Amino acid sequence: MYNQLNQFQETEIDSTKKQLESLYDSFEISQWRFLL
Fold first, then answer.
1. Is this structure's pTM higher than 0.85?
2. How confident is the prediction along the chain (36 residues), in pLDDT tens digits per residue?
3. What is the DSSP track for 3-36?
4. Rounded to an integer, what distance in angstroms lies between the CA atom of residue 18 and that of residue 10?
5. Which residue in 29, 7, 9 sits closest to 21, CA to CA?
């Protein structure tokens, strides 16, 4: 049970990290577009 919960938290954190990374990526791209 505890192991399952731990695994769930890890996947949650992982997907959140991926979302943040893609957000950051698109933000970076728009920044560059603005500069150019």
1. no
2. 567 777 778 888 899 999 999 998 988 888 877 776
3. HHHHHHHHHHHHHHHHHHHHHHHHHHHHHHHHH-
4. 12
5. 29
